[in-house]
TrEMBL record:
<dbReference type="GO" id="GO:0048046">
    <property type="term" value="C:apoplast"/>
</dbReference>
<dbReference type="GO" id="GO:0004560">
    <property type="term" value="F:alpha-L-fucosidase activity"/>
</dbReference>
<dbReference type="InterPro" id="IPR008979">
    <property type="entry name" value="Galactose-bd-like_sf"/>
</dbReference>
<feature type="transmembrane region" description="Helical">
    <location>
        <begin position="29"/>
        <end position="50"/>
    </location>
</feature>
<dbReference type="GO" id="GO:0016139">
    <property type="term" value="P:glycoside catabolic process"/>
</dbReference>
<dbReference type="InterPro" id="IPR017853">
    <property type="entry name" value="GH"/>
</dbReference>
<feature type="domain" description="Glycoside hydrolase family 29 N-terminal">
    <location>
        <begin position="98"/>
        <end position="360"/>
    </location>
</feature>
<keyword id="KW-0472">Membrane</keyword>
<keyword id="KW-0326">Glycosidase</keyword>
<dbReference type="InterPro" id="IPR000933">
    <property type="entry name" value="Glyco_hydro_29"/>
</dbReference>
<protein>
    <recommendedName>
        <fullName>alpha-L-fucosidase</fullName>
        <ecNumber>3.2.1.51</ecNumber>
    </recommendedName>
</protein>
<keyword id="KW-1133">Transmembrane helix</keyword>
<keyword id="KW-0732">Signal</keyword>
<dbReference type="GO" id="GO:0006004">
    <property type="term" value="P:fucose metabolic process"/>
</dbReference>
<dbReference type="GO" id="GO:0005764">
    <property type="term" value="C:lysosome"/>
</dbReference>
<keyword id="KW-0052">Apoplast</keyword>
<keyword id="KW-0325">Glycoprotein</keyword>
Length: 630
């Protein structure tokens, strides 16, 4: 057994030696093979493509509050105070506080009206030039606490702040530097201390304030007063870092230079604050901005819905068409539209103003809710990162928002977007947007259409910024070319849209131009309808009254459908309801006359309103060309 065990052990040792020698002899080959396999593996596996970084922003750039402000496009101004009750604009500061007694005041209604009309911000005149405070300030006795409203316990600012917060609407406050009530006005140190004390009250009691509005107005011959603007601005930054500060020259947003709500045809957010002085800025500089400006100070266009800034019983609001025209020339020119809609003496926004705001909203919806280029096929002169790079694809311009955009390759001089609408479409409005968080860039551009085998220029434009809207006579084409000819840096486009405005654009009929007027009203639209017996003319004016010459029932219905903002009646039936119109021949002569016999609201039954409709729409009874204006 010992011998057998000894032999077995010897055999095991020999076997181990042989295996070890074999392993040692093949190990170098295995390592080489492994190395080759690793090289082949990493050579043939697909690599993940690296993202192309965005282009560098071009200075100056908006701050976060400025960017949020510009994206809102519109805000509602609320002028309210003793002037509302005294039929005044600039109160003297001596009106008895007892005149302020809005028995039905409802700040939630103000906010609801703003929100329903598409306004995401409201700004209240917490103190106008008369010095009356809509909050119970501890620095003056001239405030709501001296009025009979809410038994002297009310606070308009608090009620509005609560309503705005509940609705998710941003709140801004206007605090007039000029104060016609306080005796310390004109005493530099004393008044600045007083003013900053009131500012602390407003900016520390009422939650988030998104805008502080500092009006530069002051009457002729008033006391000289040095305002400590730099100290005011610093205090606002401390108390409300998310607020933008408005004044003639910023620092965050500037006055456009007029109270008509109209910006310049070129409007830069760039501005040199060092070249401008509050109360002494060149209006032309304010309107245009400065392509070489070192500061980002976008413009705000303020205008009132009625002739005055405060409510007056005798005044009527602008028409929805007029507001649409203002919108094109404010929000459509890289500005924020600040539309004043003053509450009345009961403390509510008037029904007439609400009606116009709803019509204005419907006009915007009808025009801009449908981008006629939404199904277009797009191409570009170049794409940053190569033609297959979807990150900066031209198709990004069909998406809403500023954070996706088309970017061309660097150092190009040919910047073109090509659109194939896939069918021939009619349009008369161009909408363009830049990703302004990357800076404002475009200096000049144009839109062309393919017409008769060649490219035809439709419209030229200058600045774009957050939003540019351009109107032009209606054209029809399938193929479009958007050309950028000058830019401060490689241009970037975040949105491109084409739209059809059937309401405010003049359809160029024979003998009519965009400057045509009748009885002081500008002709906005004229079109002709051919029938078996005659040509019927329809003319639409910029005033509330519409004038129609000898239309048939169907033609008038087509007109009312085309202009839904006009489809209203004395019972305030909803927009878009149907009119029943009959044709009859009068006893005198044989001419065919249009006669309105009734209105049939789809929801509220039959109600004759012949004379009301006559007043509303200015229908001319008479054959073509034989009637007079009503």
């Amino acid at each position: 057994m010992n011998t057998d065990n000894s032999n077995s052990n010897d055999n095991n040792v020999r076997n181990i030696k042989r295996r070890t020698q074999a392993l040692n002899s093949t190990n170098p080959i295995s390592l080489r093979a492994l190395t080759i396999l690793i090289i082949l593996f990493f050579t043939f596996i697909p690599h993940t493509a690296l993202k192309t970084p965005p282009p560098l922003p071009i200075l100056p750039l908006p701050s976060a509050p400025q960017l949020q402000w510009q994206l809102s496009s519109m805000a509602l101004f609320l002028h309210f105070g003793p002037n509302t009750f005294t039929d005044s604009e600039w109160g003297t500061g001596h009106a008895n506080p007892s005149v302020f007694n809005p028995t039905r005041l409802n700040a939630s209604q103000w906010v609801h009206v703003a929100e329903e009309a598409g306004f995401s911000r409201v700004i209240l005149t917490a103190k106008h030039h008369d010095g009356f405070c809509l909050w119970p300030s501890e620095y003056t006795d001239y405030s709501v606490k001296a009025s009979p409203w809410r038994n002297g316990k009310g606070d308009v600012v608090a009620e509005l702040a609560t309503a705005a917060k509940e609705a998710g609407v941003a709140l801004g406050l206007y605090l007039s530097p000029w104060d016609r009530h306080e005796n310390c006005y004109g005493k530099t140190v004393e008044y600045n201390e007083f003013y900053m004390g009131q500012m602390v009250e407003l900016l520390s009691r009422y939650g988030d304030i998104k805008e502080v509005w500092l009006d530069g107005a002051k009457g002729e011959g008033e006391k000289d007063m040095e305002y400590y603007f730099d100290a005011w601005f610093s205090l606002i930054r401390q108390l409300q870092p998310g607020a933008v500060i408005f004044s003639d020259t910023g620092p965050d947003t500037r006055w456009i230079g007029d109270e008509a709500g109209i910006a310049g045809s070129s409007c830069w957010s760039l501005f040199n604050r060092s070249d401008a002085e509050i109360g002494g800025t060149d209006p032309q500089y304010s309107q245009a901005g400065d392509p070489y400006g070192h500061d980002w100070v976008p413009a705000e266009c303020d205008v009132s819905i009625s002739p005055g800034w405060f409510w007056h019983a005798s005044e009527v609001p602008k028409s929805a068409l007029k507001l649409l025209d203002i919108y094109y020339r404010s929000a459509g020119r890289n500005c924020l539209l600040l539309l004043n809609v003053p509450p009345n003496s009961s403390g509510l926004i008037s029904d007439e103003d609400i009606q116009v705001l709803q019509e204005f909203k419907e006009l915007r919806r009808s025009i801009f809710s449908d981008n006629l280029a939404k199904n277009a096929m797009l191409n570009a002169s170049s794409i940053r990162g190569g033609n297959d790079n979807s990150q900066f694809s031209p198709y990004n311009v069909l998406e809403d928002g500023i954070y996706t955009y088309w970017a061309p390759e660097e150092d190009q001089s040919d910047w073109v977007l090509y659109l194939n609408l896939q069918e021939s479409l009619s349009f008369n409005v161009l909408q363009v947007q830049e990703p302004i968080h990357m800076g404002q860039r475009i200096i000049e551009f144009n839109l062309e259409i393919l017409n008769g085998g060649g490219w035809k220029k439709v419209i030229n434009g200058t600045t774009v910024g957050y939003k540019r809207l351009l109107q032009f006579p209606t054209v029809q084409s399938q193929y479009l070319k958007f050309v950028i000819s000058r830019s401060r840096a490689d241009p970037l486009i975040s949105f491109l849209g084409i739209h059809m405005d059937r309401f405010s654009i003049l359809s160029y009929a024979s003998g009519i131009t965009s400057q045509a007027h009748v009885n002081g009203s500008q002709v906005l639209q004229q079109f002709s309808i051919a029938t078996d017996t005659k040509v019927l003319n329809v003319v639409c004016f910029d005033r509330a009254a519409k004038v129609i010459f000898g239309c048939s029932a169907q033609q008038f219905f087509d007109f009312a459908t085309l202009h839904p903002y006009a489809a209203k009646n004395a019972s305030n039936a909803l927009v878009g309801e149907m009119f029943r119109i009959t044709l009859s021949k009068p006893k005198r002569g044989n001419a065919e006359h249009l006669r309105m016999t009734s209105v049939v609201p789809l929801r509220s039954g039959f109600q004759p309103v012949i004379e009301t409709l006559k007043d509303l729409y200015g229908v001319i009874y008479g054959a073509e060309g034989s009637g007079g204006f009503m």
